[in-house]
């Protein structure tokens, strides 16, 4: 498996693995997001201010949790930005 389908599968798998840790398994709490960043992007989860900022960027409807749509929207935007450099 390669290319976009593989990338989507990784995105979904990553979300599911962390979203299921506490509370609603369809959303990421700030604690789950912190853990995701800490494990998947070494160094990124250790800076609390950066995590807070990242969380509020992801949580576009400001309900205090990051759902899959918010997560995918953000990752897609990030991918587009990265591909344009
Ligand atoms: Ca939200």
Automatic annotation (TrEMBL):
It comes from the Eukaryota. Gene3D superfamilies: EF-hand. The keyword Protein biosynthesis does not apply. InterPro entries: EF-hand-dom_pair, EF_Hand_1_Ca_BS, EF_hand_dom, S-100_dom, S100/CaBP7/8-like_CS, S100_Ca-bd_sub. Residues 46-81 form the EF-hand domain. Keywords: Calcium, Metal-binding, Repeat. Pfam families: EF-hand_1 (PF00036), S_100 (PF01023). GO terms for cellular component: cytoplasm. GO terms for molecular function: calcium ion binding; calcium-dependent protein binding; transition metal ion binding. This is Protein S100.
